[in-house]
Amino acid sequence: ALFVGCVHDFSALVLSARHGGTSIGSVAEGLLGKRSMALFHGIIFFGVSLAMGVFVIAISGLFSYSAYPQAILPSVGLMLVAGSIGLLLHRGKVALGPAAGVGFVVLLALIVVSVRLDRFGLEPADWPAPRTLKLSLLGYGFAASVLPVWSLLQPRDFINSLLLYLGLIAMYVGFFVSGRDFAAPAVAALAPGAPPMLPFVFITIACGAASGFHALVSSGTTAKQLDRETHARPIGYGGMLGESILGLLTVVACTAGVVSPEAWNTGIYASWESIKGPGVALGNFISGGASFLGELGLGQELARPFVAVVVVSFALTTLDSATRLLRYNVEEIAASAGLKLGRYASSALAVGAISVFCFYEVSVELPGPDGVPMLVQREAGMTLWQLFGTTNQLLAALTLLLATRYLARRGRWAFVTGVPMVLMLISTLVAMSANLVTFVGSGQVLLAVVGGVLLLLALWLTLEGVLAWRRDRRAA
User: Fold this and answer.
1) Mean pLDDT, to the nearest integer, of 212-234?
2) Cα R_g (the chain), whole angstroms
3) Please, are residues 84 and 106 in contact by the beta-carbon 8 Å criterion?
4) 285-309 in b/e burial notation, b at 16+ Cβ within 10 A?
5) Distance, CA of 156 to CA of 247 (rounded, Å)
6) Mean of the pLDDT values across residues 365-379?
7) What is the tens place of the pLDDT at every residue in 18-62?
8) Are 21 and 223 in contact (CB under 8 A)?
C-alpha cells in the first residue's frame, strides 16, 4: 500500500486535478491518444458495472430476513438524515460540525432501535423479496447519480465515514484487548482447487493494497471537490492508507476472529470453493469483527448488527459513488461518438448496465453436495466476479502507466510510478493469462470470452504506452 496503492491514488488525484477534474479516461486521451481513451472507457464500463452488480446482490443478501435485516432501518434512515443535512448546509442554516454530530448520533440510535424492533414483527413471507431489495438499491443508485453532490452523496458519505472510523477503532481495540491467538496458520497450505499464491495474491488482496477503482473516484468526484492541490496528498495518499488499515482488519477478523484452528480448517477454509464470492467473505468479516466487539462488553445481539451496518454503509457509499462515476463514463463514451446525453438518460443507462449483472442469470456448473458437478442458474455478476480482481488491478496498473508518462514528459522522477507500474502490469497480465487457460480448460465459456477480451484490451493499452514512449524518445 505504501509504495504502490498510495502512490497510485495520489497520482490519479493530481492527474485529474491538473486536467480540469476530468475522468481518468479523458486524461488517457491527452497522454496516450484517442484510442487509449476508448480502451480505458471500455475497461471502466465493464469493471464498474460488474462490481456494482455484485454489490447490489451482496447488500440485498445482507438485507434478507435470515441475514441482517436490522441493517435496513439505519441505512434508509441515514439517507433521509443526510438529505436533510445537505439541504440545511447548502442554505447556510447550520454548521458542518453540529449537523454531522447530530446525524451521527441519530444513526447510532437507529442501529439500537432496529435491534429492538427485530424485523418489525414481520414473518419471512411478508419480508421484501430479493428482487424488490435489488430494485430499491438500484433506485437509490439512480437518485444518488442524478441529484447534486451536496444533496445526498456528500453528507451521507461523510457521516458514514464517522461510522467506519468508529467501527475500525472499536474492532482493533477489541482485538488487542482480547489477546487471542490467530486460529489460522501463519502460512497455510493451499486448499484443494486453489491457484498458486503468486501472482494471485495480488488480485486477491486487490483493494487492500492497491485499487484501480480509486482512480475512478479520484478523477470523477474527488478532484472536483479539492479546495487546493496541496490537499491531494493527505486525501489521496492518506485515503489509501485508511483502506489498507481496513484491509488489515479484514484479515485479522477472518483469522483471529475464528475461535479455533478446527473451525478454520473445517468451516472457513475447507476448500477454495467454500470461500469464493463476496457473500461468504462478508459473513466471515461480520462474525470475526463482532467477536472483537464482544471483548469490549457488547452483546452479540447488538455487535453483529452493528458490524453489518458498518459493512452495508460502506458498500452503499461505493454504490452511490460508482453509479455516478458510471454515469460520467457513459456520457464520455457518448460524447466521443458525437452524442450528448443528459444526466437522467446516462444514469438510466448506467443503472441498466448494473442491473444486467445482478438480474440476468446464466447456467454454470458447480460442485454438488456429493461432489458430482451440477448445473445451476446464477447471476451473471456472481459468475463473472472472478474477473473483478484482475480488472481492478489492471485499472491500477494502467493509471500508473499514465502517471509515468506524465512525469517522463516533464523530466521528473518517473521511476516512482514506473516501478510499481511494471510490477502491477506483470502480475496482473500473468494472472489474467493463467485464469484464461483455466477457463478454457474447464469449459467456462463466458469467463473465457470476457477474460480474453479484457486481456486483449490490457495488452493493447500497454502497447499504446510503449508507442507513446518511443514517440517521446524520437522527439527528444
Assistant:
1) 88
2) 22
3) no
4) bbbbbbbbbbbeebeeebbbbbbbb
5) 22
6) 72
7) 988 888 888 888 888 888 888 889 999 999 999 999 999 999 999
8) yes
In this prediction, residue 191 carries a pLDDT of: 66
Per-residue pLDDT at 332 exceeds 70: yes
Q: Does residue 436 register a pLDDT over 70?
A: yes
Each residue's pLDDT tens digit, 55-109: 999 999 999 998 899 999 999 999 999 999 999 998 888 888 999 999 999 999 9
pLDDT at 386: 83
Pick the CATH number of 5-475 from 1.20.1740, 1.20.1050, 1.10.10, 1.10.8: 1.20.1740
Cis peptide before 420 (omega within 30 of 0): no
Q: Which pLDDT score, from 0 to 100, does residue 270 have? A: 67
250-294 residue pLDDT tens: 888 888 766 667 766 666 676 666 666 666 778 888 988 999 999
By the 8 A CB rule, do 211 and 428 touch? Answer: no
Q: Could you write out the three-class secondary structure of the chain?
A: CCCCHHHHHHHHHHHHHCCCCCCHHHHHHHHHCHHHHHHHHHHHHHHHHHHHHHHHHHHHHHCCCCCCHHHHHHHHHHHHHHHHHHHHHHCCCCCHHHHHHHHHHHHHHHHHHHHHHCHHHCCHHHCCCHHHHHHHHHHHHHHHHHCCHHHCHHHHHHHHHHHHHHHHHHHHHHHHHHCCCCCCCCCCCCCCCCCCHHHHHHHHHHHHCCCHHHHHHHHHCHHHHCCCHHHHHHHHHHHHHHHHHHHHHHHHHCCCCCCCHHHHHHHHCCCCHHHCCHHHHHHHHHHHHHHHHHCCCCCHHHHHHHHHHHHHHHHHHHHHHHHHHHHHHHHHHHHHCCCCCCHHHHHHHHHHHHHHHHHCEEEEEEECCCCCEEEEEEEHHHHHHHHHHHHHHHHHHHHHHHHHHHHHHCCCCCHHHHHHHHHHHHHHHHHHHHHHHHHHHCCCHHHHHHHHHHHHHHHHHHHHHHHHHHHHHHHC
Domain extents in the chain:
5-475
Q: What percent of the chain has a predicted confidence (pLDDT) above 70? A: 91
Distance (Å, whole) CA 476 – CA 467: 14
Grid cell 458447480 in the structure block, residue: 366
Q: Which residues pair with 375 in a beta bridge?
A: 365
Backbone conformation region of residue 119, classed left if phi is above 0, alpha if psi is from -120 to 50, else beta: left
Amino acid at 413: W
Identity at 393, one-letter amino acid code: Q
> What pTM was computed for the model?
0.90
